[in-house]
Amino acid sequence: MTSGTQLSNDNGSHPKNSFKIFIGYDPREDLSYEVCRYSLLKRSSIPIEIYPIKQSQLREKGIYWRERGKLESTEFSFSRFLTPYLSNYEGWAMFVDCDFLYLDDIKKLLDLVDEKYAVMCVHHDYTPKETTKMDGAVQTVYPRKNWSSMVLYNCGHIKNKVLTPEVVNRETGAFLHRFQWLSDDEIGEVPFVWNFLVGHNKVVEGDESTFPKAIHYTLGGPWFEQWKNCEFGDLWLNELEECKKDEEKMVD
Ligand SMILES: [Mn+2]
User: What Gene3D superfamilies does the database record attribute to this sequence (predicted)?
Assistant: First the structure.
């Protein structure tokens, strides 16, 4: 095993002590990756490094070799669990799906980390009604569904050393997505507003603790034609417009 293999990050700099964020990348959802990345960078008050987790790159580097299974709805279904390895098993790092839109400063999430946990995430109690998602990929139901879509990894935690490339390439979806390398008391919880599931979680008027800080378009977002008008879709489309304008400024 080669240790310390790094992906190239996507915002050009490596400031000291910056927080590493790995975003699952899928070629079918390139735009959602761009907007997710933009929404994080724009609101962050701390230095962050963003790395897309691209399966083709991982395969080239020899870190990822497993065959794609029928139940994998994205290219990062399993590669996400390489986050501690890609962080050299040091410090805290975050994995997040590309279908997120951040509405608040990521520092506020990082302020919640507790060293006693190996991972921290939203503990959704969630059984989806839909049987297909996005462009027809099969929706599967399992315990701890969606927990792995946004995870703070305590990469230096001894238990996360289990997540070697060999294990990530070999283990079942159940083992990985249900965090079966950990005991329950090693899985910390953060408020659901950091992984606010469109179509599942609800805003309660006047109750600020229910206002989303990160929206998760888990069924498909406005980058897919059939989800243009989904709940919170306007926020994503506005963010896309801003992202495009900023890019134009940089070209001028
Ligand atoms: Mn997702």
Answer: Spore Coat Polysaccharide Biosynthesis Protein SpsA, Chain A
Alpha-carbon span 236 to 239, nearest angstrom = 5
Distance from the CA of 148 to the center of ligand 1, in angstroms? 9
pLDDT at 132 over 80: no
Alpha-carbon gap, residue 180 to 5, rounded angstroms: 25
Q: For residue 100, which phi and psi values (nearest 5 degrees)?
A: -110, 150
Model pLDDT, residue 2: 39
What is the CA(249)–ligand 1 centre distance, in A?
30
Range in 5-9, 55-59, 141-145, 247-251 the model is least confident about: 5-9
Which residues have C-beta under 5 Å from ligand 1, the single-atom ion?
97, 99, 149, 218
Residue 1 clears pLDDT 60, i.e. is over it? no
CA–CA gap between residue 151 and residue 76 (Å, rounded): 14
Ligand 1 center from residue 251 Cα (angstroms): 31
Supply the pTM of this predicted model. Answer: 0.90
Helices and strands (H, E) in the chain, number of each type: 7, 11
Distance 156 CA to ligand 1 centre (A): 26
